[in-house]
Write a structure and sequence with these properties.
- It is a single chain.
- This protein is of the alpha/beta class.
- The chain contains seven helices and seven strands; from the N terminus they run ααββαβαβαβαββα.
- The protein has a domain of 129 residues: Glutaredoxin (3-Layer(aba) Sandwich).
- Helix 4 links the parallel strand 3 and strand 4.
- The longest helix has 15 residues.
């Protein structure tokens, strides 16, 4: 065996030994190791009470979730976390076309957690064609709401008028959003 082959073999062994504990990944237990969700307490999971928050919209107006949920005839709120990327734009366009027109008693929010300021969120809203749209853009300048809901890009949350989280997951094809919206009182 040549020295180049020996060196390659040693390098391969070093890489493989760095993957210690990998056998658990190859033979998963099949059990969910996350703590169980406790319904009825404040938290971001389905069946929990949605954490309240106040953010500024791109016009500088404060929006508080609990106040929005008590608005007359409001049956729920949808929150979509956007980075203004092509995936987010595709999702938001789908939501605008398929869901907003048929759910007039639901408020739809797009949460901008990347622009860093209300002015930055307003600029992104304008550049992406959402100024004056049915989506109210909120500026999460400190990523507070992002963290409260354990969200990331494309996370979509549905909260009913009682403040209970009905959905908290990445937007896919709209089927889960439709099911959550159909389940609102």
């Amino acid at each position: 065996m040549g020295s180049a082959n020996k060196l390659l073999l040693i390098l391969l062994l070093v890489i493989l030994t760095g993957c210690g504990g990998m056998m658990d990944d190859l033979n998963p237990s099949g059990s969910d190791k996350r703590p169980p969700v406790q319904c009825g307490i404040t938290g971001p999971s389905v069946c929990q009470i949605a954490p309240d928050f106040t953010l500024s919209d791109t016009q500088g107006t404060s929006v508080t979730l609990s106040s929005e949920l008590t608005t007359t005839n409001r049956i729920g709120v949808v929150i979509y976390f956007t980075m203004w990327c092509p995936y987010c734009d595709s999702d938001m366009t789908d939501i605008r076309n398929r869901f907003i027109p048929s759910h007039p008693n639901v408020r739809f929010y797009a949460v901008d957690y990347v622009s860093g300021s209300v002015a930055g969120a307003a600029s992104a809203e304008l550049a992406n064609g959402y100024t004056g749209s049915e989506f109210v853009v909120l500026a999460d300048t400190q990523q507070t709401v992002l963290n409260l809901y354990q969200a990331t890009m494309q996370t979509t949350i549905v909260i009913d008028s009682a403040g209970v989280v009905r959905m908290n997951e990445s937007y896919k094809n709209g089927a889960r959003l439709q099911a959550a919206l159909s389940g609102l009182p």
